[in-house]
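Quick entry between incubations.
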Amino acid sequence: MRDEYGTKRRQFVHALAAGGLIGMGGGWVRRSWAANAVTLPFANGLRELTSGFPHKGEMLLLRSRPPLLETPFSVFDAGVFTPNDRFFVRWHLAGIPTRVDGGAFRLVVRGLVGRELSLSVSEIMNGFAHVEVAAVNQCAGNSRGFFKPRVAGGEWGNGAMGNAVWTGVRLKDILDRAGVKAGAVQVRFNGLDTGVIAATPDFIKTLTVDHARDGEVIVAFGMNGQALPFLNGFPLRLVVPGWYSTYWMKMLNDIEVIDRPDENFWMAKAYQIPDTPHANVEPGQTGVKTVPINRMVPRSFFTNLGDGSVLPVMRTQTVRGIAFGGDAGVQRVMFSSDGGGSWMPARLEKSYGKYSFRRWDAQFTPHYAGEFVLKVKAVNENGVEQPDTPNWNSGGYMRNVVESATVVVA
Ligand SMILES: Nc1nc2c(c(=O)[nH]1)N[C@H]1C(S)=C(S)[C@@H](COP(=O)(O)O)O[C@H]1N2
Ligand SMILES: [Mo]
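Done. Structure below.
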C-alpha cells in the first residue's frame, strides 16, 4: 500500500516486530582499492566516494570513525525524498554500539514525572497513536566548507541534509503517559552512543517542556516507510521538525524531565550561535551574546546544473532544484538568470507539508553565448528570505546565502 507520500508503508513494522539485531556487521568500513573521489568546490574538498558503510549506498566520506558521510548532491535531483541508503550520517562520539537488539531495547522516561516508564519498541508502536511528518533533517554545519575565512569542524558541502517521511509517536503522548510534574522546565534526550574515554561529555540535547509537548516533536521508528537505518539511529530517534538536526537524538534510549535549564556541554558550550541576525558576526569579533542553535532558515538549490554546466544557446532549458522553508513552509522560490538583476517566480511542485523539501523549476532561454550567473532564492511563509551575502560565525553554522551557478552558454 502506498500512502500520501508515495512510500510503501509498514515494511518497518515487520523489521522491528521481528526484534532482530541490526548492526554494523564485520566492522566500520570496507575499503575498496579502486576508490572514486569527488572534489567539493572549496579548499581541501577532495572526498573519497565510499559504499562501505552498512545499509548505505555511495556516500562522500568525510571521516570514518565516528562516521561523517555526506549525500552526493545528484541524489537531490532524483526525487523530493532522500533514500535511506543515501541519507547523510553524522555522529560525534566514537562509542557507537556495533549492534542494537530491537527486541531488548528500552526507552526510559524519568526525572520529574509521576511514574517512570521503560518502554520497548513494540510497546511504543502498539501503545500510542502513529503520526507521520515529511521533514528536512539538516546538520547545523551543513555547507560549513564554504565558510570564508574557514572554521573548524566537519567541512561539509551542501549534502549534510536530507528529507524523509518520519513515522512515530508524539513525544507529547509519551510524556503525558509518564505525567510531567509541576516545576518541569526542560526535557533532556540521550542516545546509546558514548565517548571512548570517560572525560568526553556524553552527547545530550535538551528542549523546553513546551517545545517537547507541542505535538510536533516525535519519537520516530520509521523513515521513508522502513526501519531507521542503523547509522541514522535505529531503533528510535527524535524528530524535531523545523529545527537543526543536532536535536534529533539518534538511538534515543533516555528521556529525563528536569527542573532547570540544562548546563551540559552540548547545550551550554557547543552548538551556540551569535544572537544576531543570520547568526552573523565579523570574523574575529568577540563579546557577542550567544544562544543555543534552534530553528532552521530557508534554503534553495539547483539540482540539475551547477558551476561550469554547458547549455545550448537559443534553447529553452528547464532549470530545477529543491527548496525548504526551515521552520515554515515555502512561500515562493525566485529564479534569476542575470546574476540577481531581475527575478521571476519559479513553479513549485506538490507540497508535502511545511517541513519538507519542495521541488521547483523555471524555464530559461539564453539568447546569446557567454557566461550566465543563475541564482535561486527561497522565501518562507513567515516572509523570511535567503540573504544575498553569506553569514559568518566561528561554528560554521546556518549558512543559507542565495545560491549561484555560473553556466556557460555555447
Ligand atoms: N545519539 C546521537 N544522536 C545524534 C548525534 C549524535 O552524535 N549522537 N548527532 C546529531 C547531529 S549534530 C546530526 S547533524 C544528526 C545527523 O543525523 P543523521 O546521521 O541521521 O543524518 O544526528 C543528531 N543526533
Ligand atoms: Mo549536526
